[in-house]
Amino acid sequence: MSAAVQSRLHLTVPETQNDAGPRRPGYRRRERIYQWLFLAPAVAYLVLFFGYPVVKNVLMSFQDYSTGTFYTGEAPWVGFANYVTVLSSSLFSTSLINTALFTAGSIAGQFVLGLALAVFFKRKFPLNGMLRSLLLLPWLLPLIVSSAVWRWILDKDSGALNNFLESAGIISTGIPWLTSTSLALAAVVGVNIWIGIPFNVTVLYGGLQDIPDELYEAASLDGATGWKAFRHVTWPMLRPVVSVVLVLGVVYTLKVLDIILGLTNGGPANSTQTIATQSYALSFQDFKFGEGAAMGNILVLISLVFAVLYLRVNRRAVDE
Amino acid sequence: MTTNTQLNSAGTERPVGSRSGPAAARYRQGGTTALAIVFLSIMLFPVYWMINASLQPNGTTLQTSWLPLAPDFSGYATAISQQGRNLGTSLMVALGSVVFSLAIAAPAAYALAYFKVRGAGVVLFAILISQMIPGIVVANALYTAYNDLGLLNSIPGLILADSSHGIPFAILIIRAFMNNMPASVIEAAKVDGAGHLRAFWSIVLPLSRNALITAGLFTFLFTWSDFLFALTLTTTDDVRPVTLGIYQYIGAYVNDWSSVMATAVLASIPAIVLLIVAQKYVAAGTAGGAVK
């Protein structure tokens, strides 16, 4: 079934045209230059705002880069000293574990709930379109706004959640969602799941819409409906979209700062400190830019592991 | 059989052969709508709570009532007098970033979708990788560079840095859309004698309108919401996006939640307006295959 679907899909994907054919010599070169001009601004931007920072960050991580550097311009080379300091700090393992829990928890929750809602909204019912666009709201809000609102909702004494739970008789005293070392990370993950659901629903819903209705009709003739149709038609057809959603999700989640800084500032007692927040704190609060850079590079390395995994699984996505 | 299948595909997507009279279908659809409204109410509760809390009188922080029965706008007065300028800064930076990002992303997406340029794969790879680079790494390096270039505390500086949220995403979104555009459309333009620029400007861009609006909307969202670059690349009050204003509020004014929430509502308005205005384009874009 899915092989047939795939081959049919390939037939409908338009071939990129080659300007082969009897042309004047030099035409192709001029053509090529024109084509590159379309790409050049983006390449320049990527080099300046991603390439340069990565290189600069690697250099900084081997330097003693402090506030004094901005006045004297001197940043002595210190070899691996910054990495040694950062890695041997007792905070590092905490940050690493928190990063892993935060990312895994956020992605699992966002994706499962997002897919469920996307499949739900694929049904036809009155107000579907309007409700679906309203669902985007939590995502359109600035993260720091969401942090502020949730900080207020999760407040121990006057927050809406505890008020609700108390009036419903579920709890008798307020739960310190954001101020308890054992709950804060879970609360932050919960808020991040809430933020991520609309993105997952929107992209997955778009992917679902691209699956031709005829496939479901053909599948139902073969007796595949409901769960079977999901497994044999929806899931295989959706897979490219799923992998994009998951990889973007992991990548965005690994580097999240706003939500954590807004909700807990990394506290209480570093219980919500991640590698990203730690890197920020080192550079911009302690002004140890070299150590902050080292921490940032560790985060880049972790992201690269996911990049490589992704590219190995999805070679085709890049090649095509 | 044929009529049966068509009826089903046009209607409720029920499997062939199941019992479904029109009345039963309507009933089921009504139930589905009700369920959807329940989901949505849960998802949107924090947004309601933000608006509700922003209308509560100051000083009732210990017990916020569930409805703003006696709306009080003093929170908004405080918010506008203290954060009005920051809201303007955010708007300028976000609009600038949308224009800048689309101007860079759209041609790149076109090139990546249509040309078999040697190295296009490398660029696409770089875009994917760029998405993996944490903002804090970019901020760390930009801070020192901006310090040398005098771009700290400047709107152009923020526009350039904030576009790093939108540009890779916009390129990927627009390219994905353009990949589904039939090559014959462009070939036809070429046959008629149009050059690359003409074909791009008068054929590809108009046809990609939905993708451009979608990408623009996301870019606006990313930039308007930017917190990291606001936090790291501004050091004075001169150029201060509202996200940073809210962050400082959370630190200093936690006892005056109605002002904080009023600022939060104000900071949400452009996003809400954008959602309402651009909704049909987003819907059209996600519905997929508008161009067939």
Features:
heterodimer, A: 320 residues, 16 helices, 73% helix, flat, disordered N terminus, B: 292 residues, mainly alpha, MetI-like fold, 12 helices, disordered C terminus
Would you mind describing this structure in some detail?
The complex is a heterodimer of chains A (320) and B (292). Helices cover 73% and strands 0% of the residues of chain A. Chain A is built from 16 helices and no strands. The longest helix of chain B has 41 residues. Chain B is an all-alpha fold and 292 residues long. Chain B folds into two domains: 50 residues; 212 residues, MetI-like (MetI-like fold), CATH 1.10.3720.10. Chains A and B meet through helix 2, helix 5, helix 6, helix 7 and helix 8 of A and helix 1, helix 2, helix 3, helix 4 and helix 5 of B.
Short characterization:
Chain A is mostly helical and about 325 residues long. Chain A has 16 helices and no strands. In chain A, α10 packs across α12.
Compile the SSE list and pairings.
The complex is a heterodimer of chains A (320) and B (292).
Chain A: H1 2-12, H2 27-61, H3 67-72, H4 81-88, H5 90-122, H6 128-135, H7 137-140, H8 143-153, H9 160-167, H10 184-209, H11 213-221, H12 226-254, H13 258-263, H14 275-285, H15 289-313, H16 315-319
Chain B: H1 2-10, H2 22-54, H3 74-114, H4 120-130, H5 135-149, H6 155-179, H7 183-191, H8 196-207, H9 209-225, H10 228-233, H11 242-252, H12 257-287
Helix pairs in contact in B: 2-12, 3-6, 3-9, 3-12, 6-9, 7-8, 9-12, 11-12
